[in-house]
Write a structure and sequence with these properties.
By secondary structure, this protein is an alpha+beta fold. It has a single domain, classed as Fumarate reductase/succinate dehydrogenase flavoprotein-like, C-terminal domain (Methane Monooxygenase Hydroxylase, Chain G, domain 1, Up-down Bundle), CATH 1.20.58.100. It contains three helices and four strands. It has helices at 7-24, 38-62, 80-83; strands at 4-5, 71-72, 85-90, 95-100. The strands form two sheets. The chain has a two-stranded parallel sheet with strand order 1-2. β3 (85-90) and β4 form a beta hairpin. The termini are far apart.
Length: 118
Amino acid sequence: AGVFRNQELMDEGVRQMAKLTERAKHLWVKDKSQIFNTARIEALEVANLIETANATMISAAARKESRGAHSHDDHQERDDVNWMKHTLWYSEGNTLSYKPVVLQPLTVESFPPKERTF
């Protein structure tokens, strides 16, 4: 999905990512060497990129508003009442949870300088 999105496009993106995730489970690295194995590094990078793409697609498909770079054609307004929260994605089961955004500043007392002793 690009910057301008609709629900149908995002749902299709989630389905395509699920297919790609399944395909990636069957990837293998021909080079079995232990030293300077760039193929192994690239395979690990692909796995990481797929995880990141899943988190992005599933989180975006769940968000029913437009905010920042997430421009949702079906929900063009920002919705702070329902969506002023952080989205947390878990790879186990592709599940989401949410954490509230803390708008109150935290007060941290400063430490007075003193000599280090060991």
